[in-house]
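Quick start: what a row looks like.
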Amino acid sequence: MTTLKVLTSQDIRTLVPMPTAIDAVHTAYASIAAGSAHVPLRLDIDQASHQSHTFFMPALVNNESLGMKIVSVFPQNRAQHDLPTIHAIVLLIESHTGRPLAMMDGTFLTVLRTGASAGVATRLLARPESRHLVIIGAGAQAWAQASAVCAVRPITQVTIVNRSPERALQLQATLTHIVPDVSVHIAQNRRDALATADVVCLATSSRTPVFADDEIRPGTHINGIGSFTHTMIEADPVTVGRAYVAVDQYAAAWSEAGELIAARDQGYLNPSAVVQIGDIANGTAPGRSDNQQITFFKSVGNAAQDVVVAHIAYHAAVRTAQGQDVVL
């Protein structure tokens, strides 16, 4: 008889605080770089009529965390159906028996681990004294980006850049609750906001750059986490070309990261200069070289992140008797 533990988004929120998620994703990235994670390229089923993508993403990390995430991104959901853009579930499997262990909400877990990825990169690449975070985009991913960056750097100010004033106000209210000791503002002018930014998080689905190269000041660290296909480009390819670039995984990045592909194809970026963030974590690639260097982390999402966070959530739930047990 097999018992499956079912965890809701609130369960995961309680069981896995952001600093814990950051450490877990750090382990996932280090494992990818060290070759102790098996992460096939995700299968993408797209529906042009909905402008949507559904991804099937399996992973095995350190012969311990085994599972798969199924995530759907439907950009028109909010306008057409009053539903979230992203829906996802995560299935966790016992690695030495194949026994199903848990099914959990993957929507919140995706936001959590994606925020945590920015936390890992910011911890490894941003200047230690970074104080000002600028977030471009106010969608589902934005709050977790701010939470993660604030967890690893002494941020005192967050500035939101977004086309929709209503969404910006909603994010401002959320962040005021999540990071109450940080001043949260809505930018009147993107260029002015970026002029004093130490860390920039890109959380949009834009197909064209959301900033101009000359708006990025020396020493800025940029996290590019919104775009996830080869046709999406958040960061200016010129900026990418003059930055020190780290990715979550080579194969996925060169298959799916639009700004990297554009920068390479336009002659701005030498692919051999790109490193994996896990190699920086393991000490086999350098971090920031000086306080003037621009650094850019590009993540297209990786199932290793999901299964390690799911693994932590499951075992925490077992210890604390949280979640619902279902006999299959």
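That is the whole record. The longest strand covers residues 52-61. The chain has a mean pLDDT of 95.
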